[in-house]
Amino acid sequence: DDEEEAIDGSRNALVIKDIATDFRYVYPSARKTTRDCVLALKHFTRGRDDIGVFYSDNAEELVKAASELKWRHVTSVPYISKSNAQAERSIRSVLDGTRINLEQAGLHHTYWTHAARHCCMAHNILGDQESQTPWQLRFDEKFKGPMIPFGVRVDYWTGPKTKTKEKLKFDPTSLPGVFLGYKIHPEFSWRKEFLVLPLKEVMDNNFDSSVPWVGTNKLALPDGDFVFPLKERYNAIREGRIPCYMISDDPPKPEDEDAKPVEELIDKGPMESVKALNDAFDWYFSNANELFE
pTM score, two decimals? Predict the structure, then answer.
């Protein structure tokens, strides 16, 4: 379904879990292919890992991937939930965590791949004081990075090499951003790199637009409580306080010359802005039936 497609073109996802440590991660992909499965399994595991048994369903691409990797493979029995209960619980947990992340951040669902990966990382590195985290159980050490919520406001370092023509020589070397997660390399290696969205670029684009992420190895959280800068816009859209044409690619043009589009209000005075805004909403609601036909 095109509506479920992520910003990177992914439509499917493979959830992988280490039963011994409860360590998990998700691998989105555009197609269900053997190559995608092999790459995901190699990314999740390390060369020195002793893979005892690989459990999965009977998906053809997973059967072929296990054969290519020469892993001992046990498949679940179709229509018998007990044989794949752990897998179903893990998938449900990732789905729920992804929804919560997107809701908390105020991001469009096309960012579900980042929300899902962050959800898995949060599970792996968080724990209570009485037990070790999945990260500790698997790698024999604590995670060496900070736990940062998905979608929270951060300031990230851009560095001198990323200076644009618009930036002046003495402008700050950091920019406001929205936290997306941790960049994980093959064999599940984290090299202290983070993924962020440039906040200004996100706010300057439509809600359903795809803004490319930026990699950085240095960021900071502003002082005070966590702030989710996109949440207010997200709530306004969900509650209908922002007309739909304000977030679409091609807003309809008003037929009434006296009704001004909302985008023109930025150059108006306070009283004139209120009148123009009322005119815009009057036009929108009077033409609502035509808009949705």
Answer: 0.77
